[in-house]
Design brief:
globular, Appr-1-p processing domain protein, Macro_dom, Macro_dom-like, alpha/beta, six-stranded mixed β-sheet, about 40% helix, Leucine Aminopeptidase, subunit E, domain 1
Length: about 200
């Protein structure tokens, strides 16, 4: 095996394997439209925690409180994760992670090892307006972080995380319609990885 071949095998993927998860049929149906024609995007009908993934997405609030919806599920499954998120937000963002930015922290478990916090709302339990663009901003932040981000030890995130499991963004407490969320996640994917699809 040549060094070049070995490098290609170990090289980071061009796009992540993004598994869009839904525990209800309306969101699963909406997610199907995102997966159609996009290499790397899949749909799972069931919990985010069913997926073998290196990272899961938390669509929490800007303060990092994880008390409702899927975030409460994460907090029960990964008892240290809320403290990690809040500490990271305080250290790196002065206590508030704006919608449109994302942060990766360890879950404290071996699988998934990482949680990507990408707020869809500023305050906990905020109901989002029907014309919100927050799912798009959150998804774009996750995908940009995967593409360009680094862990604290300097390793590129895309070299460590190959599969990301993503729940609905703002579709629970936030009240965003599944179709709206799906269209915005698709737009974020297309924007972040558009250079690949145009080749």
């Amino acid at each position: 095996m040549s060094a070049d071949t070995e490098g290609e095998i170990n090289a980071p993927a061009a796009v992540p394997r993004l598994v869009l998860c839904a525990v209800d049929e309306p969101l699963a149906t909406a997610w199907s439209g995102v997966a159609d024609g996009r290499d790397g995007v899949e749909v799972h009908r069931g919990s985010v925690l069913d997926i073998v993934a290196e990272a899961v997405v938390s669509p929490a609030n800007s303060s990092g409180w994880m008390r409702g919806g899927i975030d409460a599920v994460y907090a029960r499954a990964f008892p240290l994760v809320e403290a990690h998120v809040r500490s990271g937000i305080l250290a790196l963002h002065g206590g508030e992670l704006p919608v449109g930015e994302a942060l990766v922290v360890p879950t404290g478990e071996t699988e998934p090892e990482w949680l990507i916090s990408a707020p869809t709302m500023r305050r906990p339990a905020e109901h989002l307006p029907s014309d919100t663009v927050h799912p798009y901003l959150a998804a774009r932040a996750v995908l940009r972080l995967w593409r360009d981000g680094r862990l604290e030890d300097g390793r590129p995130l895309r070299g460590v995380v190959r599969t990301i499991a993503m729940p609905g963004l703002g579709t629970g407490v936030g009240g965003v319609a599944p179709g709206t969320c799906a269209r915005q996640v698709a737009a974020a994917w297309d924007e972040v990885f558009s250079a690949l699809s145009s080749k």
